[in-house]
């Protein structure tokens, strides 16, 4: 019984071992990265107000987020979600932020 099993396994393994790997072509080089728009880089302004440290984040001069770090405590964030200038407080920065791009403004 063992001999039959060994012969059967050898008969199955022989064609598999005889196969040649396919000839692979080299991968072409990726295209160069596009240059980023410097106006889309966030501008960070750090201001000391009393004992609090305030970091203001702007894109194209528009304020979209403020981080307030008190001397004793956890920092909190004021975020303008809709772009209308009304800030809402968040105690921790969200781990998931849904992209909200402005398609057209006038």
UniProtKB/TrEMBL annotation:
Q: Which residues form the signal peptide?
A: 1-18
What keywords would UniProt list here? Answer: Signal
Tell me the InterPro entries matching this sequence.
DUF2782
- Residue ranges, annotated region (Disordered): 20-43
Listed Pfam families: DUF2782 (PF11191)
> Pro residues: which segments have biased composition?
23-35
Asked if the record carries the keyword Signal, the reply is yes
Q: Does the keyword Signal apply?
A: yes
Please identify the protein, giving its name as recorded: DUF2782 domain-containing protein
Q: Which organism is it from?
A: Aromatoleum toluvorans
């Amino acid at each position: 019984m063992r001999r039959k099993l060994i012969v059967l396994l050898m008969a199955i393994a022989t064609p598999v071992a005889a196969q040649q790997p396919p000839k692979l072509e080299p991968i072409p080089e990726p295209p160069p990265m596009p240059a980023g728009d410097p106006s889309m880089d966030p501008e960070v302004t750090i201001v000391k107000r009393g004992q609090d440290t305030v970091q203001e984040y702007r894109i194209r001069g528009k304020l979209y987020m403020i981080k307030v770090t008190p001397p004793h405590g956890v920092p909190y964030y004021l975020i303008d979600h809709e772009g209308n200038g009304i800030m809402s407080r968040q105690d921790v920065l969200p781990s998931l932020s849904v992209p909200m791009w402005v398609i057209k403004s006038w």
